[in-house]
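Incident log entry.

Two folding requests arrived from the same account within the same minute. Monitoring flagged them as a possible duplicate submission, but the sequences differ. Recording both here for audit purposes.

Request one:
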Amino acid sequence: MNKRRVLIVDDEKEIADILRDFITTEGMEAMTAYNGGEAYEKFKSFSPSLVILDIMLPDNDGMEICRRIRNESDIPIIMLSAKDTDIDKIISLGLGADDYLTKPFSPAVVVAHVKAQLRRYMSTNRKSEDEDGLFIKNMKINLKKHLVEVDDKQIELVHKEFEILWLLASNAGTVFTKEQIYDEVWGVDEFGEIGTVTVHIRKLRTKIEADPAHPIYIKTIWGVGYKFDDG
C-alpha cells in the first residue's frame, strides 16, 4: 500500500477541515468533500485508503454513499453522526461501515480510530504473492506464522520487532516518524519512551541487515523517521 489516503466527507466545512489538518499531521494524505455528489467523485479520483463519512449530507444520504462505496471497495468506512441512536448504528454497520462515531468528538480520537481501522485493513489486505506472505528484495515475511527469511535463512524476531518490520514493509516507501511507529505498534493508549522505537530498530537491523551500519531494508530519513526501501 502506498501512502495512506483519507477522504473526509462532512457538510460542516469546519469539522472536515479540522479533521483534514489532524490527519495530515500524522503523515497521511487527506481530501475533503462537503456533499454526497462530491464525495463519490473524489472517492473515484482520489482512491482513498479510508473514508470518514457523515450520515447527514445536503444532497445525498450518507448511508447511500456508504452503500455505493462498499459495492465497489472494501476499504474501511467510519460513519459520523450527530445522533447517538442504535438504529443509525445498526443500519450503518449493516451497509458495510466499519466504525461509527457520534458528534461531538475529539479530532484526536477520530485519528486514533482511523489508524486502528487502517492497521486492521492492512493486516488482511497486503501486497503479496500469496495470502500468507510479503516478498521484497531477498526478504520473505509470513504474517500468519510470524516468520521472516532473508536469503532463505530464517531470522528470529521478538514480537515487537516483527510488528515494526511488518508495519514498515507492508507500507514500503512510506516514511514513519518514531511517534507514528510507537502509536501503531505499542498503541495510542500505551505510555512509554519513544526512544524504545530506536532501540528496537537497531536490534532489528542487526538481525536482518548484512551490514547494519549501511542498511538496505530499513532506511533512516534524517530529521523525519524511518522507511522500508523496496527499490
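Request two (distinct sequence, not a duplicate):
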Amino acid sequence: MRPSFNSIFMNLALDLAQRSHCVKAQVGAVLAKDTRIISIGYNGPPSGTHNCDEEWAETGCARDAKGSCSLALHAEENAILFAVKNGARLEGATLYTTLSPCLACARLIYSAGIKQVYFQKSYAAYKGLPFDEGVEFLNRFGVPTVKLESEFSGLED
C-alpha cells in the first residue's frame, strides 16, 4: 500500500523539525499544493544570525516577555517567507506542521490564503495555555485546522 500525500508531507515536516537548532523545541513545516511541495521550514533564528544550540547550548537563547525565543522564526513563518521570497503562490495551499500554529502564525497563514492546516501536537499544551488560539482563529475564519493522531497514513488525499 502506498502512503498518502498527507502522510508523506507530515513525515517530511517531522524530519525537517530535526534540522532546527532550537534548544527548547524543534518544529517543522511543509507547504504543499496539488501534491507538490511549495516550501519547507523549521524553527530557528534568521539565516546569518546565531544558532542557539551552538551559542547557548545549555540554556537556549534569551526569552522575550512572553517566555518565547527572542530570536527564532517559527517553522510556518520560515516556510511562508521562503515561498514569498521566491515568488510562490500560496493561495489554496495546505500546511503541515508538527506543532499547531500560534496566533501570530495563524494570522499569517490566513492572510497568505492557505486553505487547510494539519498539525501533530498542540502549541497550547507545549506552552501551558488553556487552548490553541491559532487553531481557534483559523477554524473561526474558514481554514480547517486538524490535529492528526499518531497514525496519519490513512488520511485521504
